[in-house]
Amino acid sequence: MLVVGGGNAALCAAMAAKDEGARRVMVVEVAPRHARGGNSRHTRNVRYVHECPVDGLTGPYLEDEFWSDLLRVTGGETDERLARFCIRESRTIGRWMSAHGIRWQGPLRGTLHLSRTNAFFLGGGTALVNTYYQTAARLGVEVAYDSEVVDLVMSGGRFLAAVTKRGEEIAARTIVVAAGGFEANVDWHREYWGDAAANFMVRGTPYNQGRMLRVLLDAGAMAVGNPREWHAVACDARGPRFDGGIVTRLDCIPFGIVVDKHARRFADEGQDLWPKRYASWGGLVARQPDQKAYVLFDHKVRGSFMPSVYPAIEAGSVRALAAALGLDADALSATVDQYNAAVRPGTYDQSRLDDCRTEGLDPPKSHWALTIDRPPFYAYPLCPGITFTYLGVGVDEQARVLMQDGSPADNVFAAGEVMAGNILGRGYLAGFGMTIGTVFGRIAGREAARRALR
Question: Buried b vs exposed e over 375-410: b needs ≥16 C-beta within 10 Å?
Fold first, then answer.
């Protein structure tokens, strides 16, 4: 059995296959050993159904609430059958992860509103990846690093062999494709975004070029998801083009206001709780002139969020802050004055949808609206930071890849980002990418092993 990819979904598939009795399992990872793990290296937590506090969680999170949260962030753009199936199957992944070496910790300070719904793995994503590779090795999984699969030999919807960039053919009875989306492929983004794609930051691995996604689609797999939709957040524009991870993400947006390069607000910074809203800000910034924006706040809220790895830009006045950002001082002052005048008093509470809001302002700020009037004033420059893309291949509950006529491929399975578009049509819930990867990685590995053992 062959697994293409080296992140969470791929490793879950490989370990599940060995648990099922697969005799030989090989993981083919395009990255070198030191960069293994795909985007999973940058993760911190996973969301799953649980009835009581466990694994550092502070309370229950049941299936109906999980579904309601997903429905809310996707606006209904999800395959309900597959989404509900994924949520139900998530009930056992905490125990399964623990059994495969994962240890847990409480949520870190600044991880807003996640202590009840999301379990945090000790040491973050790098520790998870390293632990899974160690467990996989003990189970007898083989790993080939620096090995890019560029094509599949198929016959009548049946997989025969994988072809590597070096021209090698790797034959196997079954294959699990868990090689990510096309988030790091600027040319592919340019097909849908034009020149704006040059201004996108990729939060994760530069190796997710979408090669296996393209191969499957060219082989007749069913396409699902919108190629212009993604999990994308607002990142510090001073960060690296690739692999900035969590430390360049900016979580201060609910505590201030966001303006474009003309110093105009363009979205509701307090629309919803941050874990249900943060992944919409990458797309919002991507749609602004030159894909640039700036988040502003004052001294009152400076300690309320996890900061960027880069220091905030600081000034003693709004006009001085505008000069430091290269914005028009009159325009920024007018925007801040207009916002301050619209703020209505309420009981400020960052842990819930409070009643601190604006009135008569377009766009409004629906919650956590505090005046920006206590110096010093701070700002971060923003750019779109893509985590993963939502164009993918269709799958069924057995993680079998569906062909364009709706029939399942005979021995081709998929898990993780490459099929997440079945469930995520738009929007995102914190920790849900790991849910999808773990649920469908386990299923793909189990079902591929069963198929191989026939």
Answer: eebbbbbbbbbbbbbbbbbbbbeebbbbbeeeebbb
DSSP string computed for 75-138? TT-S-HHHHHHHHHHGGGHHHHHHHTT--EEPPPTT-TT-TTTEEEETTHHHHHHHHHHHHHHH
Q: Give the domain-ending residue among 340, 363, 384.
A: 384
Q: What is the pLDDT of residue 242?
A: 96
> What's the pLDDT tens digit per position in 385-417?
999 999 999 999 999 999 999 999 999 999 999
What is the extent of the structural domain holding 432? 2-228+390-452
Residue 87 near residue 67, CB atoms below 8 Å: yes
pLDDT, tens digit, 9 for 90 and up, residues 318-360: 999 999 999 999 999 999 999 999 999 999 998 899 999 999 9
CA 399: distance to chain centroid? Answer: 20
Mean pLDDT of the chain: 96
Question: Closest Cα to residue 246, out of 90, 368, 103, 108?
Answer: 108
| Co-location of 11 and 98 in the same domain | yes
| Same structural domain, 170 and 245 | no
Residue 317 sits in the same domain as residue 415: no
Pair 254, 159 in one domain: no
Q: Where do we find the tokens 């007898």?
A: 140
Q: Any idea what the CATH number is for the domain that residue 209 is in?
A: 3.50.50.60
Question: With contact defined as beta carbons under 8 Å apart, do 226 and 426 qualify?
Answer: yes
The span from the CA of 27 to the CA of 446, in Å, is 15
Q: Are β-strands 26-28 and 2-4 bridged in parallel, bridged antiparallel, or unpaired?
A: parallel
Give the chain's domain count: 2
